[in-house]
């Protein structure tokens, strides 16, 4: 129905994603209820790709100004839907697949449309992501500085 939309099969090798898909990607959409720290967001940011995702766990903190987050808080992690209440991961995934979340889907569509319609927004978010990776909190220099401080404090 949408010839320009590509859905990747599970378990595509990382090297193929980075070399084959990311260079052609103009927006990265990953609606997730489970990523506590998705490295894939950093990979998209390092490629200058604006992101659309959900506001679960650390995703909004990771993405910052590099993308748009959808409010997925209506999906409870603490009640009967809690991840840790299920007997198996497969059982939990099957449950998640059956849940109707039209508000989340509508917001994902709206935010994705914003990126499609505005090349300025895509460029600004892509640039913000690249800055975070090259010079910001996810840069090698910043991480090494933090690790050095941690090791020095632990040695005292």
Helix/strand layout:
Blueprint: H1 14-21, E1 28-30, H2 39-46, E2 51-54, H3 59-63, E3 67-70, H4 89-98, H5 102-117, H6 119-134, H7 140-155
Parallel strand pairs: 1-2, 2-3
Poorly predicted ranges: none
Helix amount, in percent? 40-55%
Q: Look at the structure and give the mean pLDDT.
A: 85
Largest sheet, if any? 3 strands, parallel
Radius of gyration: 18 Å
SS-derived structural category: mainly alpha
Order of helices and strands: HEHEHEHHHH
Please state how the strands of the largest beta sheet are arranged side by side.
Answer: 1-2-3
Number of strands: 3
Q: Total number of helical segments?
A: 7
Straight-line N-to-C gap: 62 Å
Question: What is the overall shape?
Answer: globular
Strand content: 5-15%
Q: Tell me the quaternary state.
A: single chain
Describe the structure.
It is a single chain. The protein is mainly α and 156 residues long. It has helices at residues 14-21, 39-46, 59-63, 89-98, 102-117, 119-134, 140-155, and strands spanning 28-30, 51-54, 67-70. Helix 2 (39-46) crosses helix 6 (119-134). Helix 2 (39-46) links the parallel strand 1 and strand 2. It contains seven helices and three strands, in the order H-E-H-E-H-E-H-H-H-H. The protein has a three-stranded parallel beta sheet with strand order 1-2-3, with helices on both faces. It is globular and about 55 Å long.
